[in-house]
Amino acid sequence: MTNQYRSTAESKKIDMKLALQFKREYKRVMEEGGITAEEYKQVCELIEDLGKYDSQEFGEKLVEIFPDSPVKELIENE
Amino acid sequence: MFPGTSNKSIYKNVKYERQAVITAINDEMKLDKLMETVDSECFTDDLALKTFKWIKKKYNQDEKISLLRLDDEEEINADKLADVGVQEFEYDSLLELLLKFKNRRELFQGAKEIVELTKDTELSIEELKNKAQDKIFKLTSSQAQSKNRYDMEDVLNEFFGNVSEIQNSKNKITGLSTGFPSLDSKLKGLHPGHLFTIAAPTHFGKTSFMLQLALNMIKQEYHIAMFSLEMDVVEIGRKLVSLDSKVPTSDYLQKLEEYQRKNMNASLDRLMELNFTLSDKRNLSPTDIRAKCRKIARQKEIDVVMIDYLQNMKYAYGENDNKRIGNTCLELRNLAGELNVPIVLVSQMSRSGKDNPSMHNTRGSGRIEEISDEVLIINRPNKDNENMKKRETAKIIIEKGRTTGGGVITMDFYSEIQAWRDQYDEPIQINSRK
Question: What does the pLDDT look like over A33-66, one tens digit per residue?
């Protein structure tokens, strides 16, 4: 396996682990009543498509789900 | 060499099993590949197997497949799957490797079972050989054909596929053409996996009917493997040349006329090019025939197997003759399924049925009829009619047609050259001595 292939495989591995972590955190928040089941579902769909977006687009999509989130300010400040 | 082909992992590799499923989860193209290439028996690891079954369920229901959904819906450790990473560039080789592991495991298990069989002192050596060969054959043929288990979706797809094939080919044959239009019209040809029995009393033309069928089929470029347990290679050759050249076999014994010789030479040239394999070894058992078919098929794929005739075979095991005949037919039918070809079996009937032949006149007839998919009986009510010495009208009774029902066909029999012709075909001009 060349280094290029290895790095692609490694980055996919990291993406998958990150996506799992993200999803589990949101699930915990939903179980604690912090977000609704519908919001959780939308977040999951967004995370499933993580690879499609750059960080800016991902933030904007997140704000669409959670309009009152502090993420909105972070994006605006960037 | 793909990693994993070393001696360390010749039966399984957990990492590759997990990689196969996690890669498919991340890539739709590879998902299709996974679904069409492997089955659940390719997985030995619980995590990979559970994931494969989940993927298959979702795939069949056309639902979205992702690692997050798997993590949500199944009680599995998705991190362990993520840890192995995806295999993007050698996915086909990875799946092939899983299939190889599965085949090796099956062969290993089969070998263990054969070793256990050898410890059974109740079995005779012949039975032991039969059972061992059976096991190996089932293993190798299932590995070659791979698909012999179906879920309900597969069953319905196969059924609808078959119905639409029939609908699209009304009045067309769906099996292998026999070269007899009337018979094809009734039976829709000879179907792979079927046992097709031709029965008649002695001297009613069973062998000649089979040889005519063989000649019709080899001319359509089908490869026939014929087992003649009565006639030797010279007799079969003489009959085939006579059928094709239309020169009566009785004329061979005298000096042939020039035009007869020319016809025979032309016939030899034609027949030489055709696909035909003959065994004239006598006293063969179904196991012997199976072994010979496998050997022939390794050289060239077989389209039809023909056996002349049942009562000359070395029967399979059974407590009495009826059971032995039944078990022999059953083994031959199984062989037809395993080889996925039609088997044409000639069977003798007792002479008591010569005026009105039916399967009831045959020893072990009940089982022969029950096991065969199609049963044809040759009836020659004009056999002794002096006015029909050269061209005789005969009946072919379809006693059983598993999917097409019964019926009766009229055919012409030319006793001088032992030829059979469909009533719709042009009459034969015999090249006899002038």
Answer: 989 999 999 999 998 887 788 888 888 888 888 8
B261, B285, B270, B346: which is closest to B125 by C-alpha?
B285
Q: What is the pTM of this model?
A: 0.57
Check A19 against B68: CB less than 8 A apart. yes
Domain assignment of residue B429, yes or no: no
Per-residue pLDDT tens digits for B343-365: 999 998 876 655 666 666 666 67
ipTM: 0.81
Query: Which residues are paired to B407 by β-bridges?
Result: B398
In a shared domain, residues B177 and B111: no
Do residues B281 and B359 share a domain? Answer: yes
A49 and chain B in contact, CB less than 8 A: no
The whole-angstrom distance between A73's CA and the closest CA on chain B is 28
Q: Residue B30 phi/psi, 5° resolution?
A: -75, -25
Domain assignment of residue B1, yes or no: no
- Separation of alpha carbons B152 and B322, rounded Å: 37
Structural domain tally of chain B? 2
- Asked if A44's CB is within 8 angstroms of B86's CB, the reply is no
Does some domain include residue B153?
A: no
Residues of chain B neighbouring A16 (CB-CB closer than 8 A): 22, 26, 67, 82
